[in-house]
UniProtKB/TrEMBL annotation, chains A, B, C, D, E, F:
Coiled coil residues, start to end: none
Family: Belongs to the creatininase superfamily.
Protein name per UniProt: Creatinine amidohydrolase
Signal sequence range: none
The organism's taxonomic lineage, starting at the top: Bacteria, Pseudomonadati, Pseudomonadota, Gammaproteobacteria, Oceanospirillales
Top-rank taxon, per record: Bacteria
Cofactor(s) listed: Zn(2+)
Originating species: Modicisalibacter ilicicola DSM 19980
Keywords: Hydrolase, Metal-binding, Zinc
PANTHER family listed in its UniProt record: 2-AMINO-5-FORMYLAMINO-6-RIBOSYLAMINOPYRIMIDIN-4(3H)-ONE 5'-MONOPHOSPHATE DEFORMYLASE (PTHR35005:SF1), 3-DEHYDRO-SCYLLO-INOSOSE HYDROLASE (PTHR35005)
Amino acid sequence: MRLQLATWQEVEAYLQRSTGIIMPIGSTEQHGPNGLVGTDAICPEAIAWALGERHDVLVGPTQNLGMAQHHLAFPGTVSLRPSTLIAVLRDTVGSLARHGFTHIFFLNGHGGNIATVNAAFAEIQAERSLGEHSGDELQLTLYNWFTGRRGRELASELFGDAEGGHATPSEVSLSWAAHPEAVKAVAMSPPIAPGGSAQCDARTFRQRFPDGRMGSDPSLASVEHGQRFLQAGVEDALEAYRAFLG
Amino acid sequence: MRLQLATWQEVEAYLQRSTGIIMPIGSTEQHGPNGLVGTDAICPEAIAWALGERHDVLVGPTQNLGMAQHHLAFPGTVSLRPSTLIAVLRDTVGSLARHGFTHIFFLNGHGGNIATVNAAFAEIQAERSLGEHSGDELQLTLYNWFTGRRGRELASELFGDAEGGHATPSEVSLSWAAHPEAVKAVAMSPPIAPGGSAQCDARTFRQRFPDGRMGSDPSLASVEHGQRFLQAGVEDALEAYRAFLG
Amino acid sequence: MRLQLATWQEVEAYLQRSTGIIMPIGSTEQHGPNGLVGTDAICPEAIAWALGERHDVLVGPTQNLGMAQHHLAFPGTVSLRPSTLIAVLRDTVGSLARHGFTHIFFLNGHGGNIATVNAAFAEIQAERSLGEHSGDELQLTLYNWFTGRRGRELASELFGDAEGGHATPSEVSLSWAAHPEAVKAVAMSPPIAPGGSAQCDARTFRQRFPDGRMGSDPSLASVEHGQRFLQAGVEDALEAYRAFLG
Amino acid sequence: MRLQLATWQEVEAYLQRSTGIIMPIGSTEQHGPNGLVGTDAICPEAIAWALGERHDVLVGPTQNLGMAQHHLAFPGTVSLRPSTLIAVLRDTVGSLARHGFTHIFFLNGHGGNIATVNAAFAEIQAERSLGEHSGDELQLTLYNWFTGRRGRELASELFGDAEGGHATPSEVSLSWAAHPEAVKAVAMSPPIAPGGSAQCDARTFRQRFPDGRMGSDPSLASVEHGQRFLQAGVEDALEAYRAFLG
Amino acid sequence: MRLQLATWQEVEAYLQRSTGIIMPIGSTEQHGPNGLVGTDAICPEAIAWALGERHDVLVGPTQNLGMAQHHLAFPGTVSLRPSTLIAVLRDTVGSLARHGFTHIFFLNGHGGNIATVNAAFAEIQAERSLGEHSGDELQLTLYNWFTGRRGRELASELFGDAEGGHATPSEVSLSWAAHPEAVKAVAMSPPIAPGGSAQCDARTFRQRFPDGRMGSDPSLASVEHGQRFLQAGVEDALEAYRAFLG
Amino acid sequence: MRLQLATWQEVEAYLQRSTGIIMPIGSTEQHGPNGLVGTDAICPEAIAWALGERHDVLVGPTQNLGMAQHHLAFPGTVSLRPSTLIAVLRDTVGSLARHGFTHIFFLNGHGGNIATVNAAFAEIQAERSLGEHSGDELQLTLYNWFTGRRGRELASELFGDAEGGHATPSEVSLSWAAHPEAVKAVAMSPPIAPGGSAQCDARTFRQRFPDGRMGSDPSLASVEHGQRFLQAGVEDALEAYRAFLG
């Protein structure tokens, strides 16, 4: 069930059978010559929607903007500061907790969000911990679809070393499976982009990674591959979500 | 063109022919017995996507969360504090301005966002005004799809006094046109909900408006009506956008 | 009764007979060639003081600084950022609510404050709504003296199209009635200033409105007119305040 | 010259002959059984207005709210948090500096503001110091009218040990000289209130100081004494202001 | 060279031969029955001081407080909120960058700091990336002493499965080597504490981990072991620091 | 007892016999040609450690960074903004209060911290005062070691006018007594540095005080003198701490 497509009474009824929710979180940032700016939001959204429909899990609205400061030298990137994203997550979790949700599972599509989302969880729990909060336990977790076992094995099988670290053929494939109308045919040079660290500012990042790719060859991407990643992603995420609910 | 479905090079090329962009902004909040929680995000998104496709305007990712504190006593509502939304918009505009966008048109679906979005514009401009900023002019505007002339006339013709102020048949229709799979058949009692002011906290709001509607009868909504609102909304918004670009 | 001229015991006694208060809020910003920098604070202050004295309503200290970033290219303008003004209002309301005030009526003299003050109200209520606040209802409203019916009719009768949007003859008149020692005789050219939008940064604003006026001819202002605006303003505001108290 | 009663062109002309300005800052807080809630704002305002008129110094609008958290258990007190007051002063100074003011003299009426105002000055200068600011020197100072030599001597001569630390006969006198219509005749018991520290929360403060006075007997106050404090205060402040301008 | 024990001229001279600096960062939090509250600060400080002395690297003052919200149900824990720690690191890095430091190496002793410190780095770089910063490259990295190869191997060899995740025998040993006067002899029951996740609030954490240990048996700690961890830690950190300087 | 060297059970036991704690707070800033960058942290830390050991008082971790913006033009200075230091102190006090500490005594080594620390105390108490906090009384105080009677007399006796205001021979002596390995022999010219105000930005400060000293001759410093200042400082601070506990 998608929260955006439900009524409040349907949410009220859902809360009677579960207090867990999946919140997709991504980013709006360059993904190389043939990858979509929305890749990191589209991928977890596609997985979450499929999972939610098949397994009666409520899926909240996608957080389309993430922490993408290092990509800002490429047109189209829109980044939140970490402090802003922390505030967004604090208000999001506060709203959900008010309704009685106790297990909030952020399904993430962007490595650059990981530190900030975990810092946000600590900010939220700190407020409770400083005040000797005596209310219900609140469980928060971040799950990265791209680290699921099935998906990792598939990427390794299909792309080997050409998977790389950003604008990977696996995420480009998955985003294309969700949006086949947006498939792009673009030549890459060199076939596999240089690798390196992304912990720097935007100007330095673009000097290191001139076309935006990091160690990948996304010309290997296809809609068909993407459909397999979607299936693997749903199974991986479902396993993680069930473990989280305990 | 949707930013989420473009590559950075496509954005770079777009910037050669236009420095304007449309950013849909909505809310995630209860919309009465048959309205979707995502109504206020779905409506401007649907209008923006149609407009963007037909008229070569770049459309950014939808801001799904808005200022909805007064709806928090209804399950499913997720609200940002005004200070959080101001930070989100400051970072969004800062990212876009860095790429050279000069005219940023927020296409809004939620009355509760208006004050905060305008405060955010002032926060952004204040930073420039205090520092004797000498860069390019930056134009920001908020346009509410539900105040467009064509849409207003259509609502008046179709629904008259049953349009009301929240969970209106026009917005419910438009959201259903975008998501026909989510149409709900729910009886309303009384047919037209009581009206009143929404400037209060969540507990008071729910006391005043027990099923979430404000002065409306959304049982009049239909997909067919929604298609007409979509068409009217695109024309209204296009007119406003062109006037904004000057 | 003016709070600034009362003792705490007098306030304690007032709270026995009323939990409402009027808080004047203005701005410190240029008002064209013959308008006072303090116009927007002086006008609501004058109305509030007269109303408070005649009708036993407590009137708090005037908030002299408002959101005036667009006027910063004119010497003498002092602006708060929206985020700062929100913090000021949050602390002001928090202090008053602690004493038992339940109805806080901000009597405003500056259009540029409207969005930010309403965002501040939402920020304050959000804190209550997120926390399932179970205390007393807290009512906050913003009333703009310059939108009162009697005042609008008087401006229309006296000035017609020369009223304009900023540095209007009506507000200049009222400020002069409060401070006749500060009347200025200055020639205007052109008689009626150009109109336009104020939603921009300070540099752009000054380019659009070279002498600071927007669409007005304040050379029509006079102390005598101001006395009539004061009387109309008191009646308009009293009506609004009584409706607010319910 | 009062900024609130000047036009922007008059400010522009003033800046040709001086880049100094006096900003009165006070508080809105209980001042015992016969002292006005606005005492701490009224006193520096009265001194600043007299000084400004006699000596051609520009005087900005009064900051009526200060840091008065410890007085919040007495009705009528309105306090800003220190962080809020810092933001107010940052924006105030930023606005004035933009116009070319280089020497900003805060004329203070409230001991409780001293730490926060000095912290605000450091916050403002830190922004410049961290960034290797290369612009004009910006001089900020805080002057407390109640520590001037002439005023101290007068208080000692008139009241001796009955002067005390809060709700003093000297400040009550001065506020009455500015507002003779607000003189109150109230019996005090005991004649001289107990002394002690104000560094605590509001509940503790009221326990320590049941009627709000700290070590003072303000029944000794009079309008006539107040006129002498006004004269002494103007001379003290003028001396300090001239030394500040160097 | 320790910054705290140097003069500013010595720092000036150091900057001629290197623009790198090591900043120890820890936490103040419970470490089980025989571990010191300061363990996480003492360990990186001891390694940094030894490294700095032997290899002419400047070592800044230790950040003693970290993000330890989950330990707050144990007396003695002092935690910063993530947002506070981000502000501390922003100011620290801003100060160092102003002096010309280009490579700032945070030597960390606390797993709970990792997300927040990386979020802080992103906050700092975002400010540069949003503004098209054209200054020198600024390199920031976080190195956790407890993940160094030599140290890991030593812990494995000495403690095997009894190393655990918090209040480990390796960190307790190292802190004792730095402070032999603080060695404690305390019986543990059970010998190896239960394991689990620390991503929760303080009350939940204490329920999960009643004596504060996570999966460890720190009764195996000794000063002698600690001396070996110090030596291994210096070699591991030096290798990482040199790689960071490139 | 030093908190950093205690276990949580030892802290728990301490709280049975006392709810007071001493928190050393300093700064990291230039101290002239022969003074250590860490002087302002080292001095209160040395006094606190000696006091704590001799008199069974718990001493928390040293806050090494303070408000030192005016020293930022000298290499090695690391400053927190006042707003950052306020947040650090708010979290520190919040953590300690949660454990039951009621009397928190900040032992300070830096004049530049005074305003900000007092503003922080007000920020903390304001949160309690606005909310009608009904918990235990929380006492906070700032004590500056360099204003103790015994220390003042000793400085006067040993150094007379050469004591000055910053980089004084007394603080340099005390820091050397704590770290004899860091004694520096540096010639000073002129012997006594010029005096003046430190309330300015960093660039201005360095113009006024070219070698960093303010009115002092720290060539008079010695380890022996420092040992006497340590003894005097412990006695002064103990007296103040006992008075604070009441």
